[in-house]
Amino acid sequence: MDGIRVDVAVIGAGISGLSAACLLKKSGLSVAVLEAQDRVGGRTFTVRHPTHGWVDVGGAYIGPTQNRVFRLIKELGLQVYKINEQYRSVLYINGSWSAFRGTTPPMKNPFSYLDINHLIRTIDKMAEQVPIRAPWKAAKAKEWDSITVQEFIDSICWIGEVKQQMKIFVEALFSCEAHELSLLYFLQYIHSGQTFNRVSTIADGAQEKKVIGGTQQMSERMSDWLGADVHLKSPVTSVTQDDAGAIVYTADGKVVKCKYVISAMPLPLLSTVRFTPPLPGLKAQLIQRVPMGSVIKANMFYSTPFWRELDLTGIALSDTGPSAVCFDDTKPDGSHPSIMAFILADKCRSYGQLTKDERKQKLCEQFADVFRCKKFLEPVGYVEKNWMEDEYSRGCYSVTPPPGVLTEYGREIRKPHHRVYFAGTETATEWMGYMDGAIQAGERAAREVLFAEGKIKESEIMQDEPESEDYPARPLTRSWVEQNMPSVTAVVVSAVLVGCVGVVAAILKMLSF
After folding, report:
1. Mind listing the pLDDT tens digit for each residue in 206-238?
2. Helix (H) or strand (E) run with residue 169 in it
3. Burial call 349-360: b when 16+ CB within 10 Å, e when fewer
4. At 158, is the secondary structure helix, strand, or coil?
5. How buried is residue 331: exposed, middle or buried, by Cβ count under 10 Å (0-12/13-18/19+)?
């Protein structure tokens, strides 16, 4: 067996684990990063294709207020580019097709604008009431954690096309169905990314930019700096600990003796590791109740970006075919024209049973239908990643807690287990589920170790990140009209009241004769 002695063993060489390891090493502690796969990056994975160049088949998008990831990108000497929004996007729902510019799609029913505005306004107001570090402390935590997002949508929305758009939004954001997700978790997630619009939009939102060359470079460059401290093909099988320290065992025979352990694995994978003493009962129950999302990320390549000649961005929201959301993924220099598609939630579980070639054909047919152009039936290449089949992720992008989990078990999510500390984007309090959240969580776990070592004060564990000087965020403010526009409910109630007044007036007039 290979014997390694360090201050801290880090389980997982994704962005979170490597961020923790780098901070610890810069602070003077020795580390060993144990990665199960033959690569670093975790849920960021950049395929270097011989024909189609670099392709991000995992986490890819970043945007304003994600200041930690911008800081890391700058430190590592990487560059970013903006997603193309120059042309028209497509909305294809319930058989109704429309192409539009900007962020607000046209809707057939004029009441839809009232409905969606009221929905977004209500979500933001509710999200503000959820403490991002302790959502179970919200005044209405029990109430909101007892229902699904779908139940909430059905209770507040009147118009079918608004409900359908919201369904697509939830699928795209969480890679699960709205009926599978706790409303409290949904609100915490929105709050962790500031507002609904910040999380959901491209310009000034979470999908605004990508990294030139792919996001896996962040992990690769951190790993290069750590050098021999990173051990690939070393899945951790057990962790034992006592008052003197901890020992981590791997399937390939490594024995790492250390003072502390940081786990940066996805929460559900903790069940694959034997802990001695065992994880507390509530922690063990938590990891059984937080499934990962279901997503296949696919890139279809074409000889030219011909959709731009049709004044189309390549962005579409659709309720027909495999993909709910797709983006133009052509390289910033115009090379390797591509449409990237997310196959999500129920559709992922359904289309995941087809062969790769069958999925490719279904996507081509959907693109031809949604973008109204037969050229989409003639791709020159196809690259996909089914994250449900990834042994050491078991899904993407993050966990999808159903009702009841946060209020009963949420307190365990970051709570250390003796000498074991927990990182990973699921444990973040800002931009949870994103790469920025992964960095925050990794650095927070590292500072927990530094506090245990007496190197920093407890008040220094959680730290705010200064705004990026290179990519400052533009404030997203709601207009007076958006703030004061009535809901459909208010309009209906007013109409009923007006109608009642009219009836009473008519009766009084009749009685006066």
Report:
1. 999 999 999 999 999 999 999 999 999 999 999
2. helix 160-174
3. eebbeeeeeebb
4. coil
5. middle
Do strands 209-211 and 80-82 pair parallel, antiparallel, or not at all (unpaired)?
antiparallel
Rg (CA), the chain: 25
Return d(Cα 486, Cα 247) in angstroms, integer: 61
| Closest alpha carbon to 35 in 167, 226, 321 | 226
Angle ∠(85,87,93) on CA atoms, nearest 5: 90
What would the two tokens of residue 195 be?
A: 């507002």
Q: Checking phi first, is residue 303 left (phi over 0); if not, alpha (psi -120 to 50) or beta?
A: alpha
- Alpha-carbon distance of 409 to 486, in angstroms, equals 38
Strand partners, 48: 54
Q: Which of 293, 299, 295 is nearest to 363 (CA)?
A: 299
Q: Where are the beta strands (DSSP E) in 164-276?
A: 209-211, 230-231, 236-242, 245-250, 254-258, 260-263, 274-276
Count CA atoms within 13 Å of residue 228 on its CB side. 2
Report the candidate in 162, 145, 422 with the shortest Cα–Cα distance to residue 317. Answer: 162
pLDDT tens digits for range 35-87 = 999 999 999 999 999 999 999 999 999 999 999 999 999 999 999 999 988 89
Q: For the segment 437-463, what is each residue's pLDDT rounded down to a tens digit?
A: 999 999 999 999 999 999 999 999 999
Rounded to an integer, what distance in angstroms lies between the CA atom of residue 395 and that of residue 295? 7
Residue 498 pLDDT: 67
Q: Where do the H-state alpha helices sit in 250-355?
A: 281-288, 345-351
Structure-block tokens of residue 332: 């910033």
Contact 283/31 with Cβ under 8 angstroms? no
HEC string of 76-132 equals: CCCCEEECCCCCEEEEEECCEEEEECCCCCCCCCCHHHHHHHHHHHHHHHHHHCCCC
pTM for the full model?
A: 0.95
Residue 509 has pLDDT above 60, yes or no: no
- Placement of tokens 């780098």 in the chain: 22
- 378-416 as b/e, with b when 16 or more CB fall inside 10 Å? ebebbbbbbbbebebbbbbbbbbbbbebbbbbbebbbee
DSSP state of 308: G
Strand, coil or helix: 246: strand
> Max alpha carbon distance in the chain (Å)?
105
> Torsions phi, psi of 396, nearest 5?
-160, 165
